[in-house]
Amino acid sequence: MPSDRAHPRPSSPEPGRRLPTNTTWADLVVAPPALAQLRQIAAEASVRFRGFTPSGRSVGMTVLFAGPRGTGKTRAAQVLANALQLDLYRIDLSQVVSKYVGETEQNLQRVLDAAADGRAVLLFDEADALFGQRTNLKDSHDRYANLEASHLLQRVEDFKGLAILATNRKQDLDDAFLRRLRYVVEFPAPAPAPR
C-alpha cells in the first residue's frame, strides 16, 4: 500500500487527537488469538483500501476492541495504523456525545467529515457511550435514543477508513450493533509475566 503519510496531513478530526504510530508488531503483547485477528484485519484493510472489496461491501471497516484497561487496545490501534501507513486519531467521545437532541449526530458528522477521505484510522475509545444497548420504548426520548444509536452506527459504517471502537464494557453494547461489526477482538487481561 502506498504511503499516505507522504501527502499533506488532513486537518485533525475534531474532537480528536493524533496519536503516534511508530509502534510495530514486535512491540505488541497480546494473546495469540487477538494477534491473529489483528494481522487479519491489517491484511484485509490493506486490500480494501486499495479498492478491492467483496461485492456489496463498503470500502471501510468497523471493528471492536474489547477488554479491560491496560490490555493493549490503543497500542493495537497504533500498530494497525503503522502497518497501513495511516495516521491514527483518538476521538474524545466526551466531546461528541451531547444531551441535546441532534447534537451528538452533528458532532460525529463533523469528525467523520474531517476524515472523509478514509486516509486515517479513527479510534473511538469507550464506544459503549455511543453504542450502548437500546432501551425498551417507554416514551419519545427512548425512541429518539434508539434512532440516534442506529444513525450513529450507520455513519461509522459508511466511513471509508478503519474505525476502531474500543470498550471495556462490551456487555453494555447492543447485540444488533455487535452483529454488524466486521471483527470483534477480545483483549483479555495478560498474565503477570507478559506485563
Could you explain the architecture of this structure?
The protein is of the alpha/beta class. The chain has a single domain (16-186), classed as Rossmann fold (3-Layer(aba) Sandwich), CATH 3.40.50. The chain is built from five helices and six strands, in the order βαβαβαβαβαβ. The protein has helices at 32-48, 73-84, 103-114, 140-158, 175-179; strands spanning 16-19, 61-66, 87-91, 120-124, 162-167, 183-186. Strands 1-3-4-5-2-6 form a six-stranded mixed sheet, with helices on one face. α3 links the parallel β3 and β4. The two termini are 33 Å apart. Mean pLDDT is 75; it is low at 1-8 and 134-144.
Structural class: alpha/beta
CATH architecture label name: 3-Layer(aba) Sandwich
CATH domain topology: Rossmann fold
Which range best describes the helical content: under 10%, 10-25%, 25-40%, 40-55%, 55-70% or over 70%? 25-40%
Largest sheet: 6 strands, mixed
- Total helical segments: 5
CATH class: Alpha Beta
- CATH superfamily annotation: P-loop containing nucleotide triphosphate hydrolases
Estimate nothing, just give the exact number of structural domains.
1
